[in-house]
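> @MW can you paste both from yesterday?
MW: sure, first one:
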Amino acid sequence: MRKSMLFGFLLLFLGLALPGTQGIFIPRCNLVKILRQHGFEGFVGKTVADWVCLVKHESSYNTRAFNDNGPSRDYGIFQINSKYWCEDGKTRGSKNACRISCSKFQDDNIEDDIRCAKKIAQEAKGLTPWYGWKNHCKGKNLTPYIKGC
């Protein structure tokens, strides 16, 4: 009896806790619209399709994506790195060039993510800081990423 009650409480806890940690997955065409509204078309010589491809391969469109790289971590839909761009309280010598807490990149409001991603791209003069873009998008036909949107 005790084990089944404990199991029931565990399931209830997980059912309440997990949805909050999953974030939202922004549908591809919604992301296309958001990026167009924020001036991504032609920004640093890249297309909205480049950015959608980047997001697909960095975070799978998940606003709360997280990746632990060991000495640093990547946060949010654009997978912004704590070594250079945000402060997470764990990364030694963080530059925090976007002057923001990394936790802000894991909420469902991507306005601050957009500002920082644009700063990164502007400083790099392109999208080369993102391995997802370099490995999966650079030099490829990206029209499928915006097709039908």
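MW: second:
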Amino acid sequence: MGKVAVAATVVCAAAVTAAAVVVVRHRMKNSGKWAKAMEILKEFEDKCGTPVSKLRQVADAMTVEMHAGLASDGGSKLKMLISYVDNLPTGDETGIFYALDLGGTNFRVLRVKLGGVGNVKKEFKEVSIPPNLMIGKSEDLFDFIAGELAKFVATEDEDMQIPPGTQRELGFTFSFPVKQSSIAGGTLVRWTKGFNIEDAVGADVVEELTKAMERAGLDMRVSALVNDTVGTLAGGRYGNSDVIAAVILGTGTNAAYVERANAIPKWQGLLPKSGEMVINMEWGNFRSSHLPLTEYDEGLDGDSLNPGEQIYEKLISGMYLGEVVRRVLLKMAEEAEFFGDIVPSKLQKPFILRTPDMSAMHHDSTPDLKVVATKLKDILEISNTSLKMRKVIVEVCDLVATRGARLSAAGILGVLKKIGRDTCKEGEENQKSVIAMDGGLFEHYTKFRNTMQDTLNELLGEEISKNIIVELSNDGSGLGAALLAASHSQYLEYIEST
């Protein structure tokens, strides 16, 4: 009996030792995986760093590219498009004007009654475009738009009617690439955002709309064709004469600003009376060797519909931030088994992690990061994550958002440098420079917005930053188009002389 007991004890001891070895090996394996995940995170952090010295290089590069783009067409990655807007709203505009805002699968028609700053009455209607019209014929699309516009005009009440004997005037926000030839003329370069109407490419979009309005029996003149960023600038200027630039940070990104007309070498013809010209930068296409690109950005760019293009946009805009986070997490899953032995299949799907979801995780203030856990489960079907893992995911979100926000601030500094608003000149110590901002990324992603503002202050220094104001300009593009119709009205000289 004694020998059996000893033998049993020996067997048990051996089993315990073997189990302990397995546990130790498992822990070592897990700690090795965790170390690998931390290595991936650290490398990403290092590669996407944005120290002030680098941001200043980015700002300087932006200014250089602006000069090059103003000198000649094709001279820079920045198109620096002449908008033909040389009269921005002053705040004194009065009358009733229409706007058509076409920028995606929906469009808006607006009716605006202007009675000076603070006295604006607005009515609008949003219309979805049937999918078949997005790939059909130009005439069909514009007939549909003109028909909806005519229906909207028919709802005018007595308070919103134009004076007898005058023609209704419209500002047309058209957020697709256009080669503009005048304030109210421009040919479509190419479609984006799911549209593909071949016979419209190369056509003047104002002419197409005008012909459609005539077919609909609508007597209306297009007074201004504008890009949404230029519209935001106009909307901002109407309420504040210190507005000198507009930046959109939403799904995509762009900037427009007021330039001295004599500082545009590629401008042909007489200089405008105002001496100013609004430039649509198309800054999403900016690129520089100073931009902190990582393997994840290069992969995203290579897999995109436009490789090598819109590099700056792919670093800072809402379309792409969540996708960069997904790519970092995917590498952790593949190389460090971050989510277990099997790579979650949903994590392999491009663009499944949208920036609003990334923002929700980044702003999670619950002690156990419950929002992060819920988003992982609902979107990626990943459950049973530890708090330690969830903290890493928040850190990835923070790195991507911080880089984007700081690079956005560097871009704004580049614009301010170009127009000499980055320094304090004698006698102009109190001159304010206001940047009108629009877009869901800026409006709703609080940490992104705050980081961008803090970085801009850091780059400008305490004295200058007191005079640089960044403010949200909601619905700038729709209202801005109506305002530009007013400031370029055919009745302007008559109004001014009475």
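> thanks! The radius of gyration is 28 Å.
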